[in-house]
Amino acid sequence: MMIMCRNILIFVFSLFCISCAKAETLYTKQNLPVKPKGKINVELALKNAVHQYLYMRDKLSGSAAFPKTYDANKKLLETSDSEWWCSGFYPGTLFYLYEATGNDDLYREGVRMLKLLESEQYNSDTHDVGFMMYCSFGNANRIAPQTDYKDILVNSARSLMTRFSPIVGCIKSHNRKPNDYIVIIDNIMNLELLFWAAETTGDSSFYDVAVKHADTTIKNHFRPDNSLYHGLNYDPKTGKIKQYQAGQGASDKSAWARGQAWGLYGFTMMYRFTKDEKYLDQAMKVADFMLNHPSMPKDLIPYWDFNAPNIPKALRDASAAAITSSGLLELCLYVKGEKQQTYLNAAENILKVLASPAYTAPENTNGGFILKHSVGNMPAKKEIDVPLSYTDYYYVEALCRYKALQDDKKNGL
Fold it and tell me: Is 151 assigned a catalytic role?
């Protein structure tokens, strides 16, 4: 009997060890550099994306919910209402995919979601109204301009303007205590809505606020090595910095990967609208910081923080990679020579890896999301190693930008 019990214990322990080994293997593979062969098959990547988003549409079944992420353990598509900061990414992705493929089902679903978003044009409680409304209504209006879309976007821009403080020189991000004025680097992405409003209405105040916010960001958010703080807390009465905040980064001294990506993309966008060389220079500084950082993996899918404490076992962040790729594909248009090729090659490499099975989910899985392995908020232990709606949005945007570059090259442009 004792021998039998001992044998059972040995067997159970062996199974436990095998299970741990498999888990460690899966964990390790997620962190190893990926080396996909050949070039990016953009058409295949877009075809997969269309399939996934039609699959997601069917899972939503005409509900009023906006997809956030997918819990693989619970086999649950996690959703939000229209007030969540990510609500604009799902319809925005649908419109990008429609534009790239002509699939009318995607367009109809996008229009359906716009109806659910309309009320957010008056939401002045968040700086994310740019993400929410410009990524959705902005894309819809670009594809098929409508007076209603224009009015909604202008109202959204006005709502965003109410959060600007001339004393601080920035648009407030988070609503905290009365004596706190939090500004995060993500906020620079919302300035695109203001530039659009300035061009559409002729009201220069939208333009002036966008420029002032960007200039204050350059002055205060950057460190000497060109990395970015995630958040700053200003004194609303004096405009002086009270505190540097870690936010979603590993610490207040670390370089949170998605924050760097927001900066790269955001300052590239600033140059697009202003043609001011200082913004182009700032975008290049962020790009060079990221691409040359000793902690950047060879496949250019960054760890969730460049200073994460457990590198090289730290989780990668596909969201930071997707935003970076899309930003680089625009940035390479504004520079020449070696820099242009460096940025284009990096963007191509990132897209190639994201389009590989290491990051692209098989069809009819992943809740309908395209990409796997994003990190939402590591310090808060939320959305860790999961798909995210904004990851898909910037990935599809990058695919569309890359396809446009390919088409221009074919046409000799």
Answer: no
